[in-house]
Amino acid sequence: MRLGLEQSSRFGRRGSVFGRVAVAAIGVLALLAAPATAGPTPDYGIDFAIIGDPGNRHVNIDEGRRFYPPFAPEGLRVGTVNYKYRMSRTELTVGQWFEFVNAYQPYYDGPVSDLAFTSAWIYYSPGSQQYRMFDGAANYAADMGWRFAARYCNWLHNGKVGEQWAFENGAYDTSTFTTNPNGSFNDQLHRNPDAKFWIPTLDEWTKAMHWDPSKNDGEGGYWQYPTSSDTASIPGAPGAGETNSNTGVYYDVGAYADVTSPWGLLDGSGGVAEWLEHSNIGQTGRGTRGSSWALPTHFDSIDTVSLHGIWAPYGLRLASVIPAPSGVVPIAMMWLIGQRQRSRRMRHEALESMGRSTRPSVRGRADDRANVPIHDHA
Asked: Could you give the CA distance from residue 198 to residue 188 in angstroms, rounded to a whole number?
């Protein structure tokens, strides 16, 4: 697991009028730049849930034994997210992926039947030279390679523009998508700071699926499984069972409507295992979470993280910024303009009366990224 970059800054001198204005301005700018309050972001028909309670604690050793030595490196901490964000309530569907496949087809130069691109439910028709979906599969969970999942995020980030540039950057810079002779990759490890849609991190996925602020009489805690339960789901058809895990049978996403995470996410168990942003130290694969139609509920356990090659087909549950309420950005900018004019007027009066200028000091610090591997599970 590779921890993200945190930034802190200080502006102004305690008691200084100019310092207080600067601090307030920075506060508004931070509000505008924060993931939870970014600018207008369309949903594209995807149903999202807001994941709140920023600053929640990490998984403790009693809740996730395999996140601690000897199973994992010393110092690994999983589950804390210090900001609000959104997660799609279901995995991306074949119908949604089909739209992407057709949009990217003019720029795709790989094998026409590569499952990393098409998913298991889309096929190429040589006669029409077009891609088609299998009948009845439109609402199944799609699966795809990690790099194509990243391109999908780029495409959404850029407003689904049909030009090649819209697929190649935005959330992830695909110019970094290269592979070394030993099989390791050089892909960008973390999303761009201004990404609107992205592949969730291990922390984001774990929190959205397992963290419950109301657990333990309101103290908060993690459920063992992504279904608001400490007991594994019962496989079976919708209405009789709670998951299609390891049944070999497919159902539409959201078919188990009464089985949810604490935040209302569906299909945390079953469907398809889902891609994570996180990689191991050697950068030979990316993590996945959850069971699937072919994997048993053991894979739903909070501390079970699998590692797979980036071309293997797995599912995608999108993470996203929270769109700002209408009018927040214009109002905030008007406030900043007013404060700037006011501070200039006060500064001019102060210079006349004091005969000297006072400048607030600026100091910034950025912590280095620390490299901590996620533990690989078969």
From this structure: 12
| pLDDT one-digit tens code per residue, 56-104 | 999 999 999 999 999 999 999 999 999 999 999 999 999 999 999 999 9
Predicted model pTM: 0.79
**Residue 170 near residue 195, CB atoms below 8 Å:** yes
Can you name the residues that pair with 38 across neighbouring β-strands? 323
CATH class of the domain defined by 42-320: alpha beta
Residue 279 C-alpha from the chain's centroid: 14
Low-confidence ranges of the chain (pLDDT < 50): 1-34, 36-38, 328-333, 335-337, 340, 343-344, 347-348, 350-378
The vertex-143 CA angle with 138 and 148, nearest 5°, equals: 110
In the chain, where the domains are located? 42-320
Report the first-to-last Cα separation within the chain, whole angstroms. 17
Place of tokens 């009028």: 17
Distance CA(193)–CA(368), nearest Å, equals 15
Q: Which residues pair with 124 in a beta bridge?
A: 131
